């Protein structure tokens, strides 16, 4: 099963699952109704478009059923079924907030579904969070424990029979555009209302147990390791950190996409500086890291991938803490003020002040950005210790970009 059916699930977990015909996916969205309807009309199949010099198109058929978020009974019945062995999730970083009684949320639905499974006999299950969240397995496990803390038997069953796997996921998959359908038709001769554009590269690193079995994802290159920590730091700090840097600093410089942003020498130099700083806090052999950086730049500049900065800049309050703050804290502990991190924080402040902000904390953050003394207040909203750091606050204030008022997108 999957929760959070969108572009990334289809370019990543569904593509990996395609290699094992023994398995199929019952994919559920959170709210979207158009995508499951279109996929149902196409018997679950869709086109994966891989642009580039040797553009390719593949039809992926591993989604057996697609359901809208409103189909609650279907969700509960699926999750109660012993035929279901694995549940993957892509519900964004914010989607892992602990459930609040009476409020609908991804975690609320998951816990309700797990309770149903427990009552129906309690077959073992593995949860596989696939969002860019540090320690995603641990975060999800904590959410379950907190939600079940007053239900002793259910909590015991969760601990004994539901495993939570930690993952690092990677495949750059921009939001769809209106041109994608025509590209898919030209590439395959088939009408597809919901194709997905992605890159040839894909990575999936997983740590944990699968008591009820799993698809043979390793056939497509998934790696099973004891601990994802170093892989996670590499991916979150280097790829996603650079993305967040390019998104905020790029918007402030009038750039539109990741490709345009890495074509800007000033931004490219800032990314390289960021990577130099982050490299001091990760235990990866320098040659391997240099090769990873080289490939990232190639991927960022790849033709045919229109990855909009405005898309990446969404939910900054959830992304900056995962992608930049661990390195920033380590640098401050060493007495340094890392310029590229300061650049991002300053550009984020400017984004909150001038742009159309999409963030679960938008109301609070936009008000702070437009208040007096916004820099310290915004840093405090991200992290108490960093907000109390006078030297950092002064550096961010000095780095604030000048840009015209009014929405940039
Ligand atoms: N797109 C990528 O390149 C990529 C790569 C790696 C990881 N991811 C992860 O996958 C997530 C989804 O990316 P996508 O490209 O599929 O986006 P998408 O917009 O196509 O799909 C997002 C899905 O998440 C659901 N969702 C959004 N906010 C939610 C919330 N608060 N609670 C529950 N569900 C929510 C939506 O309903 C939708 O089903 C990202 O947030 C990221 O964590 C994406
Ligand atoms: O998907 P988000 O919104 O969490 O982050 C935007 C991008 O940084 C992200 O999607 C990357 O493209 C992805 O993590 C690459 O694997």
From TrEMBL:
Segments forming a coiled coil: none
Domain Mannitol dehydrogenase N-terminal: residue ranges: 1-218
Catalytic activity: D-mannitol 1-phosphate + NAD(+) = beta-D-fructose 6-phosphate + NADH + H(+)
Native organism taxonomy: Bacteria, Bacillati, Actinomycetota, Actinomycetes, Pseudonocardiales
Keywords per UniProt: Oxidoreductase
Protein name (database record): Mannitol dehydrogenase family protein
Domain Mannitol dehydrogenase C-terminal: 227-400
Cited Pfam families: Mannitol_dh, Mannitol_dh_C
InterPro entries hit by this protein: 6-PGluconate_DH-like_C_sf, 6PGD_dom2, Mannitol_DH, Mannitol_DH/Oxidoreductase, Mannitol_DH_C, Mannitol_DH_N, NAD(P)-bd_dom_sf
Superkingdom per UniProt: Bacteria
GO molecular function: mannitol-1-phosphate 5-dehydrogenase activity
């Amino acid at each position: 099963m999957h929760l959070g059916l969108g572009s990334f699930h289809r370019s990543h977990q569904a593509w990996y699952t395609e290699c094992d015909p023994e398995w199929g996916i019952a994919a559920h969205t959170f709210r979207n109704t158009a995508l499951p309807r279109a996929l149902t009309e196409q018997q679950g199949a869709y086109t994966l478009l891989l642009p580039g010099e040797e553009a390719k198109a593949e039809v992926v058929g591993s989604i057996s059923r697609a359901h809208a978020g409103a189909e609650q009974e279907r969700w509960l019945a699926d999750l109660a079924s012993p035929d279901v062995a694995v549940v993957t999730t892509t519900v964004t970083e914010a989607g892992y907030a602990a459930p609040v009684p009476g409020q609908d949320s991804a975690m609320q639905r998951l816990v309700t579904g797990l309770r149903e499974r427990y009552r129906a006999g309690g077959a073992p299950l593995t949860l596989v969070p696939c969002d860019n969240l540090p320690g995603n397995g641990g975060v999800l496990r904590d959410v379950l424990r907190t939600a079940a803390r007053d239900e002793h038997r259910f909590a015991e069953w969760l601990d004994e029979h539901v495993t939570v796997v930690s993952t690092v996921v990677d495949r750059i998959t921009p939001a769809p555009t209106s041109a994608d359908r025509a590209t898919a038709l030209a590439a395959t001769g088939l009408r597809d209302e919901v194709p997905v554009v992605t890159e040839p590269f894909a990575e999936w690193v997983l740590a944990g147990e699968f008591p009820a079995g799993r698809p043979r994802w390793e056939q497509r290159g998934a790696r099973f390791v004891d601990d994802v920590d170093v892989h996670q730091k590499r991916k979150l700090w280097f790829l996603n950190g650079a993305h967040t840097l390019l998104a905020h600093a790029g918007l402030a410089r009038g750039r539109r996409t990741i490709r345009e942003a890495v074509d800007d020498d000033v931004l490219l130099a800032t990314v390289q500086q960021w990577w130099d700083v982050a490299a001091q806090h990760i235990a990866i052999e320098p040659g391997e890291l240099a090769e990873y950086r080289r490939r990232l730049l190639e991927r960022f500049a790849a033709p045919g991938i229109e990855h909009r900065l405005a898309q990446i800049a969404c939910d900054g309050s959830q992304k900056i803490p995962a992608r930049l703050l661990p390195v920033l804290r380590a640098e401050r502990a060493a007495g340094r003020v890392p310029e590229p991190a300061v650049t991002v924080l300053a550009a984020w402040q400017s984004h909150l002040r001038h742009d159309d902000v999409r963030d679960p904390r938008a109301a609070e953050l936009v008000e702070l950005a437009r208040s007096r003394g916004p820099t310290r207040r915004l840093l405090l909203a991200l992290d108490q210790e960093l907000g109390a750091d006078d030297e950092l606050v002064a550096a961010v204030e000095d780095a604030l970009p000048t840009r015209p008022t009014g929405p940039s997108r």
